[in-house]
Amino acid sequence: MQVFPFIVVAWIAGVGLYGIVTSRNLIHQIVCLIVVQSSTYVLLLGVGYVTGAVAPYYYDVPVHTPAVDPVVQALALTDVVVEAAVTALLLSVAIQAHKRFGTLDPHELAEFKG
Amino acid sequence: MDQLFALSVAVPLLVAAALVGVKPLLSGRRRTLDALAILTAASVAAMLLVIMIRTDGGDRVYWFAGFRPFHGIVIGIDFAAGPLSAGLAALAAVLVTAVMIFSWRYFRQVATYYHALMLTFLAGMTGFCLTGDIFDLFVWFELMGVSAYALTAYRPEERGPIQGALNFAITNSVGAYLSLSGIGLIYGRTGALNMAQIGAYISRHPPDRLVAVAFLLIIAGLLVKGAIVPFHFWLADAHAVAPTPLCVLFSGVMVELGLYGIARVYWSMFGSALGHRAAISHLFLALGVATAVAGALFCFRERHIKRLLAFSTISHAGMFLAGIALLTPLGLAGTAVYVAGHAMVKGALFLCAGIVLHRLGSVNETWLHGRGRHLRITGVLFTLAGLGLADLPPFGTFLGKGWIEDTGSAHGMPWLTPVFILCAILVGGAVLRVAGGVFYGLGDPPAEDRRMAQEAAEETSETDGGGQRTPLSMLIPPAVLAALAVAIGLTPLGPAVEAAAVRFQDQAAYDATVLHGAHVAHPVAPFPVEAAGVTVPDVVTGLVSAAGALLLACLALYWRRLPALRRGYEPGTGLTALAEGFQSGVINDYVTWMVLGLACIGGVLALIIG
User: Fold this and answer.
1) What's A56's domain CATH number?
2) N or C: which end of chain B has fewer CB within 10 A?
3) ipTM of the predicted structure?
């Protein structure tokens, strides 16, 4: 297991969180949320990676050939599905926000807090 | 019997999908939709109650598609139910049923997706309680979350719900992704996703930094869901704008599910690895007490009834976390009873607030002052539930809180009792102040707060007002919930709940049950088992809390008549700016608090495990 992928994970998550905290545009903020989530894909794939291994389908390869972990790939796929649902919902709410408020700035939106 | 596990999530999900699928056929037949949804929720509640009763003698494990573990190595995905987890899921289903009955007449119009989303929400909560797989825990968490975000933005033509739903969705999603990172790390360390197998692996090795980081990240999302300071900001914003029936579910079970998740993760995975250290117990106790006190203070200064109830939920979430953090069987048993009692009482309060909104078109305490006199039954119910919230015996709340206080005193923390009494007095006092002012016209109306009035005015389009009578379908659910709260307090549950708590806390027994299919008849408690029963101190503290709350409510209603205060001084004006500063409604601020809070907790954990 290498350290490098995990440094990348921390970097992506940090950048995404920084973006969410400083953003002044809702669409930008939602994209930053996707960036935070992207760090989890790298993390999952990094966890399952095996140097010099083949893709995990066991056809036409000798027994005991090392393969990368297929479980994390399934997890990452589920993760993508979850992200698609959350992002679609958030973006549709953001469109409504723009229709009602005429702005996408979270600071201005907070003025209309319910 | 085992099929019930799968059915308890499959039925609501399939009915929800079917409702959306046959939408064109059902347009204009709202009653069919309502009836189907009520029937589904009630059947899920029945299934979960059966599971809860059947697991009384020992936890039950259900392996999907029959993929059982092979020599202690898990291949499939399981649902592992004990009385506490099944009971919490059953509580969710009962509340959903009550809420769907309430919605029968509450909404003027209702779209198909309201019912479908409610059922997916229920499926998410049920799956979250029953699952034995840490990745599935995240998936159910997100399913529950996405349905809840969509339901919060149920009235997208208004401005408040949009803002509330965005806050809710973004903060909770960030938390969920942190949890997922933790799950990824723990999988990398152990090669397992089943909680029992992970727990068995890491308890064989001394805890290192990776395990500590994974623990921190996994509970981050659960702390956000559980509305623990400083992760709680989204809750009041979402509660204030979500449709009132939904608030019942948010306050009654969703927040508690976050805390249940923390307990589940701790007791089935990290507990024995971290060694049940006193320092960890103290860390979570501190978080819980800070949340309880902060929530109670914010609650008391609120004039927006739904927001007031939301802050009281934060206060109670703090007390629940404190109960779990004591790590004793009695503490956990007390929390379980407290959660059940609180859910019933808080559900009744929110439903009464919904009736007020339905009949009078406002949830602004100042405006409503004295205008609810003709809502006699609602007023009585609201007052009774308010007394229940202040832990008046025989409401179930006093029992749960009493046990937590008993075990706290026995373990060198007698200061917990006065803190809990103080919180109960503040929260109960605020609710009883609303009851006295709105339904009986007592005292003087509190001064108008411009911002709160504006917030409360936004609520009007949720339900149609002006009916001459409150429909029976809206009065029965809160009455039944209040009666259930009393029933919980009067049933001699003590030994059964405590036995369930002991089993929940015995990690070795959980591992043996899940990994080897063993039946553990006598689980071992990590701390000595204390007697759970109704003791004199429990009753006395409950009575003191309720009396204190009544006194505080009277004081809050009448104290403007004191000579010293006639010059127009309004209590708490100086605090408003401070409160607004914290509760700014800006997502950026909330996420900043989350990151800061997480860094602090991480620092403390690093010092403890180091």
Assistant:
1) 1.10.287.3510
2) C
3) 0.94
CA atoms within 13 A on the CB side of B516: 9
Band of the pLDDT at B49, cuts 50, 70, 90?
very high
What DSSP assignment string belongs to B290-346?
HHHHHHHHHHHT--BHHHHHHHHHHHHHHHHHHHHHT-SHHHHHHHHHHHHHHHHHH
List the single residue in B with minimal CA-CA distance to A107: B586
Query: Does the beta-carbon distance from A112 to B160 stay under 8 Å?
Result: yes
Inside any domain, residue B578: no
Q: Say yes or no: B113 contacts chain A, CB-CB below 8 A.
A: no
Residue B147 has pLDDT above 90, yes or no: yes
Q: Does the CB of B533 have a partner CB in chain A at under 8 Å?
A: no
Choose from B141, B151, B181, B209 for mutation: most chain A CBs within 10 A: B181
Which domain covers residue A79, as residue numbers? 4-112
Half-sphere exposure of residue B169, counting CA atoms within 13 Å on the CB side? Answer: 33
The dihedral built from the CA positions of residue A84, B95, B84 and B423, taken in this order, carries a sign that is positive
| CB-CB neighbors (< 8 A) of B67 in chain A | none
Question: In this structure, is residue B581 part of a structural domain?
Answer: no
Name the domain count of chain B: 1
Give the predicted TM-score (pTM) of the model: 0.93
Question: Domain for residue B579, yes or no?
Answer: no
Closest CA to B153 of B144, B145, B163: B163
Contact A93 B162 (CB under 8 A): yes
Q: How far apart are CA B332 and CA B566, in angstroms?
A: 48
B272-301: per-residue pLDDT in tens? 888 778 888 999 999 999 999 999 998 888
Nearest-5° angle of CA B496, CA B497, CA B498? 95
Minimum CA–CA partner of A44 in chain B: B184
